[in-house]
Write a structure and sequence with these properties.
heterodimer, A: mainly alpha, B: alpha+beta, Alpha-Beta Plaits, 2 domains, two-stranded parallel ribbon, 10 helices, 12 strands
Chain lengths: 427, 351
C-alpha cells in the first residue's frame, strides 16, 4: 500500500516535469481550462440562460460534444480487439494509450452532461431514485461510469505492474479487457438509443442511428490516436512503429467508409420517401423556409469526410504528413456530423412545426473549450507518466535524476511484462 | 518567467518525492531556496483559480438550496409529517420572496376519476385568452416568459401542424380563412416523457395527470426532447413574477412558484380540478370551446362528447394515447334519432 502511494506521488510529481514544449502546452491548456471554469461559474450564477438553448432547441453544443466524446471513448476498443482477439502484436503497446484516451474522453463526456444540467446541486438524486431500466439516460449513467472504472482499472493495473517490474497476473486484467470490449460497444449503443428511442423526434427515430454512431466513432477515435501517437513519437523517446500506424489507418479507412455509406442510406430514406418526417433533414441539408443556419455545417462535414476518404484510399496516406491531414479533416468532419449535424437538427423544426435556430453563445463555447482543455490536460499527464513507466525509466527502484535523460528507446517489445523484463536486463 | 518557476518547482517536487521514497539522496526535502522557487508558482496558480471562480460572489441570495430543501425526499417517499414540513418551508419561501402568505397544499388524485379534456375546433376563435389565463393562474415566470398553451393558426384544408402559424398577430380574430388549434400538455396515458426521466421526477398520477416534482427535477431536459407535443418548458433563467400577480392558492405538484433550472408544464390545473373546479383555461374561454371532466362518469359532458362527436387526437401514430381530444361540432349522423344533425338516411351498403 505504501508502495502504491509512493507510486502515485511520483506520478504526480512527474506530471510537473518536462521540456519547454511540455510546459507551454500544459500552461496553454491550464489557461483555457480556467477560462472554461470561469465561464461555467458565470453559467452557474446566471443559470442556463447564458447558453443559446431555448425551449425549442433544448439541447445544444454540450450534448453534441458529449455524443462525440462517448464515441471517441468507445473507439479505444478498436485497438483492443486486434490485440486481444486477433493477437495483432503491432498494436499491443499502444492499447494503453487508447484506453487512457478512453478515460480522458469519458471524463469529458461526463463533464459535458454535468454542465448541461439545470440543477447540478441535485446530482445526488440519481443515487436516491434511479429510473432504471426505464430511462435510457439511467442506462447511460451506468454504462459510462462502468466504462470509466474498467479502463481506469486496466490501465492503472498494467502501468503499476510495469512500475513494480512484475508480470501482470492475467486473471486480474484479461477478463476485464474482454468485458471492456463489450462495454465499449455498449456505451455508444446506449447513447444512440438515448436519441433513437424517442418517437416524437423522427430525425433520431431511426434504427441506423446506433450503427452510424459506432462507425463514425471507430473512424474518429483511431484517427485521434494516430495523431497522438505521432506526437508521442516526436516528443518522447518512445517509438511507435510505422506498421502500427498503418493498421490504425486501415481501421479508420474502413470505418469512415461504412459511416459515409450509412449516412447515404439515411439521406436516401429521408428524401426519397419525402414524408412529413423529412422536415429536419431538409432543414439540415437544404434549409427550410429561408432558415439555413446548419446548411454550411453539414456540407463542410461532408466535404471534410470525403476529402479524408480520398486521401486515405490513395497511396499518399502511407506517408505520415498526408495521413495526419486526413485524420484532422475527418475528426472535424465527424465532430460536425455528430454534433451540429445530428443533435441540433432534431429540434428544428419543433414537434409543432416552429422553426427557431440555434447558435451557441460565447459563454457556452468557452465552457466547451474549457472541458476539452481539461480532458486533454488529463490525457497529457497520463501519457507523460505512462511513457517513462513503460520504457522502464520510472520503476520502483529507479529515480529520475535528470528529466532529459534518454535511455534506449523502446522498440518492438510485445507486451508490458516483456518491457519490464527487457529493461531489467538492459540495466 | 512563469514557466521557469513551474519547471523548477516541478523539478524540486520530483527530487523530493524520489529522495523520500528511495532514500537514495540524503538531501532534505525542503530548503529555503526550493520554497522561494516554488512559492510564486503555487501562488500564481491559486490566484488564477480564485480569479476563475470570482463570478460566484454574484450568486443571488437564495439560489443555492437550503439544507432543508437539499435533504427533502422525493414526493412519493415523504411521510405526512415530512410533507407538512416541506409545505411549510415552501410557504415561508414564497412569503419571503413575494410578501404574500400562500396556501400551499398537496392535492391528491380523487378516487374513480380519469380526467380528459375536449376542445371544440369549430368554436375556437384563436383569441389566446386561455394562454394568458393559464399564465396568471399558474404563477408562470413573466420574464423569461413561459406559456403552457400554444395556439396555432391553421390554414383551412390541412391538419398538418407544420403548416400552422405560431406567431399570428392580427387585430381581430378569427381570420377568415383559418381555424385555430390550441396545444398544451396532452397528459398522455402512455407518456414518453415520464419514461425517460432518469430520477423519476415526473410521473403519471392515478387520475391521469402527468405531474412533476419541481424539487426533484435535475434539469436534464430529456423529457423536453421526448415530448411529441412540445408541451414542456424549462426555466432557463431565474423565474420572475411581479408580487401583485401572485396567485396564492397553490399546489405542491402544480402552480407553486418554480425554481430555476427545472421543467414545468400544464397539469390540468390540478389544484383546482382535484377540488371539483374547472381549469383556468376553460373558465376564461369566451366561446365555450373547452370541455373538461371525468371520463369515468357517464353523465359528464366529456363522456357525452367522446361518445357522440367526431373526435381525434394529435399525432396518433406516436402511440402516446393522449387524453386531450379535439372535435368538431357535428355529431355522428346515426347517433340518436332526436339530434338535429341526424338527417342522413341509412343507405344500403354495397359489397
Amino acid at each position: 500500500m505504501k508502495k502504491y502511494c509512493v507510486f502515485l506521488s511520483r506520478c504526480l510529481a512527474l506530471s510537473f516535469v518536462g521540456d519547454w514544449k511540455y510546459y507551454f502546452w500544459m500552461f496553454f491548456l491550464s489557461v483555457i481550462a480556467l477560462m472554461g471554469l470561469n465561464a461555467y461559474t458565470q453559467q452557474f450564477v446566471n443559470s442556463l440562460i447564458t447558453t443559446g438553448m431555448t425551449d425549442q432547441v433544448s439541447w445544444g453544443f454540450y450534448i453534441a460534444n458529449f455524443t462525440f466524446l462517448v464515441g471517441m471513448a468507445a473507439a479505444a476498443v478498436m485497438l483492443v480487439i486486434p490485440v486481444y482477439i486477433y493477437k495483432n502484436h503491432d498494436l499491443h503497446d499502444l492499447v494503453i494509450f487508447g484506453e487512457l484516451f478512453a478515460v480522458a474522453a469519458i471524463i469529458m463526456a461526463l463533464l459535458f452532461v454535468t454542465v448541461d444540467l439545470g440543477r447540478p446541486d441535485r446530482f445526488h438524486h440519481l443515487f436516491l431514485r434511479f429510473n432504471f431500466p426505464e430511462s435510457m439516460l439511467a442506462w447511460d449513467v451506468i454504462a459510462l461510469n462502468g466504462y470509466l472504472l474498467l479502463n481506469l482499472h486496466i490501465c492503472g493495473y498494467l502501468i503499476y505492474c510495469a512500475y513494480c517490474k512484475r508480470k501482470p497476473t492475467r486473471l486480474f486484467y484479461i477478463p476485464f479487457v474482454f468485458i471492456a470490449i463489450a462495454w465499449a460497444i455498449s456505451i455508444h449503443t446506449v447513447t444512440a438509443f438515448l436519441y433513437s428511442g424517442l418517437g416524437g423526434r423522427p430525425f433520431w427515430n431511426s434504427a441506423v442511428l446506433a450503427p452510424r454512431f459506432l462507425a463514425s466513432a471507430f473512424a474518429a477515435g483511431p484517427a485521434f490516436l494516430i495523431l497522438t501517437l505521432m506526437v508521442i513519437s516526436k516528443a518522447t523517446d518512445y517509438r511507435v512503429t510505422h506498421k502500427a500506424l498503418m493498421t490504425l489507418r486501415n481501421i479508420v479507412t474502413v470505418a469512415l467508409t461504412i459511416n459515409m455509406f450509412l449516412l447515404g442510406s439515411e439521406v436516401f430514406t429521408e428524401f426519397y420517401t419525402d414524408s412529413a418526417h423529412v422536415a429536419s433533414a431538409k432543414y439540415l441539408f437544404l434549409g427550410l423556409h429561408g432558415n439555413n443556419a446548419l446548411v454550411p455545417w453539414i456540407w463542410s462535414a461532408i466535404a471534410l469526410n470525403t476529402t479524408a476518404i480520398i486521401i486515405l484510399y490513395s497511396r499518399m496516406s502511407r506517408k505520415l504528413p498526408a495521413l495526419s491531414v486526413a485524420c484532422i479533416l475527418l475528426i472535424i468532419g465527424v465532430w460536425i456530423e455528430k454534433g451540429m449535424g445530428l443533435i441540433i437538427p432534431a429540434f428544428i423544426p419543433t414537434p409543432l412545426g416552429e422553426i427557431v435556430e440555434y447558435t451557441p453563445t460565447l459563454n457556452e463555447i468557452l465552457v466547451t473549450l474549457g472541458i476539452w482543455a481539461f480532458g486533454l490536460l488529463i490525457y497529457t499527464i497520463c501519457v507523460r507518466i505512462t511513457v517513462p513507466v513503460l520504457s522502464g525509466q520510472l520503476t520502483v527502484d529507479t529515480q529520475l535524476r535528470d528529466r532529459h535523460t534518454t535511455t534506449t528507446p523502446l522498440r518492438g517489445s510485445s507486451a508490458p511484462h516483456t518491457i519490464t523484463t527487457q529493461e531489467e536486463t538492459a540495466r | 518567467m512563469t514557466l521557469r518557476i513551474w519547471e523548477s518547482q516541478a523539478g524540486e517536487a520530483v527530487s523530493n518525492s524520489s529522495s523520500r521514497s528511495c532514500n537514495c539522496q540524503s538531501r532534505p526535502g525542503f530548503t529555503r531556496r526550493s520554497f522561494l522557487r516554488t512559492a510564486p508558482g503555487a501562488v500564481g496558480g491559486m490566484a488564477a483559480m480564485v480569479a476563475a471562480l470570482s463570478p460566484l460572489k454574484d450568486l443571488p441570495e437564495g439560489s443555492l438550496p437550503s439544507v432543508e430543501e437539499f435533504m427533502q425526499k422525493h414526493y412519493k417517499e415523504m411521510s405526512p409529517e415530512e410533507m407538512d414540513a416541506a409545505l411549510a418551508r415552501m410557504s415561508r419561501e414564497v412569503e419571503d420572496r413575494y410578501g404574500v402568505v400562500p396556501s400551499i397544499k398537496d392535492y391528491k388524485p380523487l378516487e374513480g376519476v380519469q380526467f380528459v379534456y375536449a376542445l371544440n375546433l369549430s368554436r375556437c376563435i384563436g383569441c389566446r385568452k386561455c394562454v394568458h389565463a393559464c399564465v396568471e393562474e399558474n404563477n408562470q415566470s413573466r420574464s423569461p416568459e413561459i406559456q403552457y398553451i400554444r395556439v396555432l393558426e391553421m390554414p383551412r384544408g390541412t391538419t398538418d401542424i407544420e403548416e400552422g402559424n405560431h406567431h399570428y398577430d392580427r387585430p381581430t380574430v378569427p381570420g377568415d380563412t383559418h381555424y385555430y388549434l390550441p396545444i398544451q400538455c396532452h397528459q398522455c396515458a402512455n407518456p414518453p416523457c415520464t419514461k425517460v426521466c432518469p430520477v423519476e421526477a415526473t410521473w403519471k398520477d392515478d387520475d391521469g395527470i402527468v405531474v412533476i416534482d419541481y424539487d426533484w427535477c435535475i434539469g436534464c431536459r430529456y423529457c423536453e426532447a421526448a415530448c411529441p407535443y412540445w408541451a414542456r418548458r424549462f426555466n432557463f433563467g431565474e423565474p420572475s413574477l411581479p408580487k401583485d400577480k401572485i396567485n396564492p392558492d397553490m399546489g405542491y405538484l402544480s402552480n407553486r412558484p418554480r425554481p430555476r433550472g427545472v421543467v414545468e408544464k400544464c397539469h390540468f390545473c390540478l389544484h383546482r380540478t382535484r377540488q371539483g373546479k374547472m381549469p383556468a383555461c376553460l373558465e376564461i374561454c369566451p366561446v365555450g370551446a373547452r370541455k373538461f371532466g371525468n371520463a369515468l362518469d357517464p353523465e359528464s359532458e366529456v363522456s357525452q362528447i367522446l361518445k357522440t362527436k367526431r373526435i381525434f387526437v394529435l399525432k396518433e401514430e406516436v402511440g402516446t394515447l393522449p387524453r386531450f381530444f379535439y372535435y368538431f361540432d357535428e355529431r355522428y349522423p346515426r347517433d340518436d334519432g332526436n339530434s338535429p344533425e341526424s338527417h342522413a338516411e341509412p343507405v344500403e351498403a354495397s359489397e
